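ERR on first pass: missing label on line 2. Operator R.T. fixed the label and resubmitted. Corrected input:
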Amino acid sequence: MDFELKINGVTHSVDVQPDMPLLWILRDILGLTGTKYGCGVAQCGACTVHMDGNPVRSCLLTVTDAAGHDITTIEAIEHTEIGSKVQQAWLDEEVIQCGYCQSGQIMAATALLQKIAHPTDEEIDNAMAGNICRCGTYVRIRKAIHRASSHDN
Amino acid sequence: MITKKPKTRAGSGLLARRRTVLAAAVTGGSGYLLSLFVPGLPLIKATNAQDIATGTIFKPNAFIRITTQNSITLIMRHAEMGQGIYTGISMLLAEELEVGLDQISIEAAPVDPAYIDAVAGEEETGGSSSTRDSWIPLREAGASARMMLIAAAAQKWGVPVSECAAKRGQVFHEATGRVLTYGALVEDAGRQSVPTKVTLKSAENFTVIGTNPRRLDTKAKTNGSAQFGIDVQIPGMKIGRIMACPVKGGRLTGYDRAAGMAVSGVVEILTLHDAIAVIGDHMWAAIKGLEASAPQWDFGPNAKTSTVDIIARMKRASEKPGVTAVSTGNTEQSLKNSHIRIDSTYELPFLAHAALEPINTTLHIRPDGADVWVGTQVPGRARQEVADATGLKPESIAVHNHLIGGGFGRRLDSNSIGQAARFAKQVAYPVKLIWTREEDITQDQFRPYYYDKISAGLDKEGLISAWHHRTTGSAVTARWYPEGMQKGLDPDAVEGAAVTPYAIPNQLVEFVRDEPDAVTTLWWRGVGPTHNVFVVESMIDDLAHQSGQDPLAFRKKLAKQQPRALKVLDEVAKQAEWSRKRPEGHGLGVALHYSFQTWAATVLEAAVSKNGEITLVRVDSAIDCGPIVFPDGVVAQVQGGLIFGLTMALYNEITLKNGQVEQTNFHNYRMMRLPEAPDIRVHLVPDPEAEIGGIGEVGTVAAAPALANALFAAKGKRLKRIPFAKQFGTEKV
Amino acid sequence: MWPHYLKSFAVFCIFSALCSSYADAQDGTLPASTEETIKRGEYLFRAADCAGCHTAPNSSELTGGRPFTLPFGTIFASNITPDKQTGIGQYTDTEWLKMLREGVGKGGKHLYPVMPYTAYTLLNDKDALAIKSYLFTLTPRKIEAPENKLSFPFNQRWSLVFWNWLNNENKRFVPAADKSAEWNRGAYLTEALGHCSQCHTPRTITYGLSKKAYAGTVQMGWYAYNLTSDRQHGLAGWSDAQLKSYLSTGYAKRKGPASGPMAEAVEHGLRFMTPEDIGAIITYLRSIPPQASGPIAQVMPAPPSQVDTEEHARGQKLFAQACSGCHLMDGQGRQSDWATLAGAHSVSDPEAHNLIQVLLSGSSLMTEHGKVSMPSFTRAYTPDELAAVSNYVIAHFGGKLTDVSSAEFKK
Ligand code: FES
Ligand code: FES
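pass 2 clean. output:
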């Protein structure tokens, strides 16, 4: 079946099965490999992208559900105001270790700050609890989110 | 970031052999042993004389390449898996080469004996050895290149070398104000002879080492451009999902080929005797195709094995004496005479690595050679695996090493690469073969289960009089590098037990080898020390409490011959405010250890609520790893290592039922998540005069004992079995 | 002992639907296995949700083996592929009808009443045999279902004679003359094929259906909710659109997703039914007299004030970690309708039956967007944690005070 996907502002037409998750379309068909596969069952958050500004798990988001919506991936997050702030905060705090989870972490943090400019610790906990970092960068992620949120005025 | 002893390896034909050394240095009569020291290999040599001769590229040694366009490339022999080694190694080279980190680019090393890690004994990233092994040789590599560049400039200008100096990739002649970039000197530098003697900068003159530059690998990790092995895209490439027999030792008996091939996007179904791979245009086709092809298995001899049986057998095996690792004095007699005596059993579970990037290998196998794109901690072994699987000559196989999405020891094994090669050789096109998360957990090679019996006695003064520790488990060394075995002793199985920071006059440490059925064992972050330090530090804590001594003061008393131990203990006591009053339900636990040539003392504050919920409040860790190259990198590794270890201590165990692993994904192999992470403060108290230590595994080693001791302090419950979380809870019925 | 309102069925009336057939003669000529019959048989097979019970665990084959744990022991579903030894390959048409109607299998073996023959007895010959025709087109699989494990006296199959006498009236569906064709179609689908009452009507002491038809009850740990026209407890508060969506997709806006056995009924049966048939079922359900029993579901009601705050905080923290990845903190469901919690019965039941079941054993449902599923969370989370998360979920999303104990997760 043909589906129209709007990814990072560009419309792509893909001919795939209707139950195909967006994750594999991004990675294997469109070559956008910044979005990662970690678990495939919405437990790790490595595959997080934005759909109409909301963080979603692309490993479970079917093409049927994604079609027609605005999808943003890690490759384009620097073009958003908050996204680039988050990336900078991540570098300033030296959050990243292996980096495999970090596309998802940055997407989740960006979505949080787009909704709540100055999140509390609890709001950070709730928004970031779905993103596993096996390297254990949590202590720095917390700091980096606070840093990014304090940059804006 | 995984340790092993230096070793020799037979059969690979890769390396010069070296004896495994467990050098013992008895200090101050305390029985304290220094674990290992192996001198570095002579790494400074021109690898390709021809390149140097052509003059377009200056290649003074295996690690540095400078072109006439002034591009400076550093070749990384160690894999970057998050530990920051690309940055650390670059700092060593840049310091002596006199270039800025902003001026360099980085390339992963190919398979070549020039890139052997001398501590590890092969081309390998593991054993927290990378910085230790690079500390001298890579600075020498940078210095000798700099000397050649300066010599070339001096010659050109006709001035003495001593009047010239290098800085930020340029050579200066201060008296005349003349300047030449390294690029401009490529041709002449190539004609200089490689210096036989180099003098390294002294620590006061360091401008890079000891600073906190921005990490070199992280920018690309913020925007999705970093290439992990799983991200490889080769023109014409197909993608496959592998499933191996759910029970080790079983075989594939059949599958529904028609149903599998009927799935849209599936291009081929391949089999091995014990595994099946469905190849598709994309991973989704491969996933669906594998489901549809419904493989059937003969589970073989392990079809009935369960963890309960494995443990029962280990327990029986632990009744008999094992191979002696250490024996001093008369342990049995002193135990009998001891004033206070404790006999305990500790158990540590099988553990999966669960790195976030699942196992994957991309291969293109042709009749005359092959390319392999993979993230591996052992590129030489990877190449050999592919050679063995395909019959190709190793020299015809190019291994392109990639960023690794978490290693933790998993990618010290290359069996998965061999498996992938046996599939890939059946097709002509390049193919990326991926394990799903479920495959990655169930088919992992696990950290061994350990069953430890330990007895210790105190004399009237409250000092240890006797210590008997018998550990029973799998010998990873025996499979992974059999030559490392020492007359039946796996040195890894007793690392952290044979040598402790403490004065123990009568000590007997034994190892009973018992290999589990249905499980392959492997290195896991922190290796021997992660196992033994938990047992030893729990026991020390138990002894302190049962003799009414403060656990921290007790450790100081026992380790008084170790000035660096006292230093880290004092520092952590101060930082963690050891004697402060704590709220109800809170407890502080301390752990001291010396692993990977690093001293660490850790204090953890945990709270247990009335309904059994464990909260990790705060961790303080004082670290002395000798000289420090990249301080923030050290802090990050200790923070991450602690979370890795705490995750294990709270939640993790792999169990088997009917030969199959019961855990499959993160909902049943639980990971610590952000809200649970404690505040972690790392306090660096380096000793610039000491030997340089490893850091990647230190935090992991400290985690379980510090937590167990804190939980005891909080609740009076001594935890002797990992994981802990399920041992707390109310019995609200 | 059929619900009283069924007893009023009198003369039949005729209507046409894709596979309607109760108008056909109750006896007489048996239909030949034409392609059309087989196709209709397949539709009826789905409407009767045979696959729901007879699919083997971890497989898509109808070889049985699925265990049913009942108060009196464990019963295993049988192999219904046309294998001659282990399946139904030897059944004649007459034997088939006897089995479906009287619960007497081949060779005079009494079936246990897990098999809803007390409902299937209402099927007319043509439909009953169409199902058989369809089953006979499947590939036979030789797989013996496990032995049932029952406690005395239930392990005595002959005792079922007594039960049958009490609970099973051997009679065909007779349409009600005073009702519309659609209502009659709905009644036939609901009572005979869908056997909805088997789960949704409370059982008597002899495991027969009680008179409180469709008042909702607990079966094998799962709560089958109230389907009567009660405004608060039943379906009167549901719009036709919500019911239609729920029955054909397993999800309705502001009502949450189906889980457990209901998800299976949707997956194997209901989602294949024509919109007309779904409409007929709704028409019929609307006519069921109200019974006030069972939990009341609301969308995000005010939380109870007396919650144990420490337990609640713990539950919330766990929910953030283990659950919100799919369900979101506000229960709206991340990206998938089937992950919506707000408004669902499962989070409004103060005894948390279905919540406990889902946490224990997971749930999955095939939708036209692919499979949606939730895994079991028992292995990595402690009973205390699962109890805390349950109590939090029901307080937060259902507005009710619960005291789910960790013992629920230790079974
Ligand atoms: S890959 Fe999607 S949440 Fe883990
Ligand atoms: S940085 Fe490695 S998993 Fe998060």
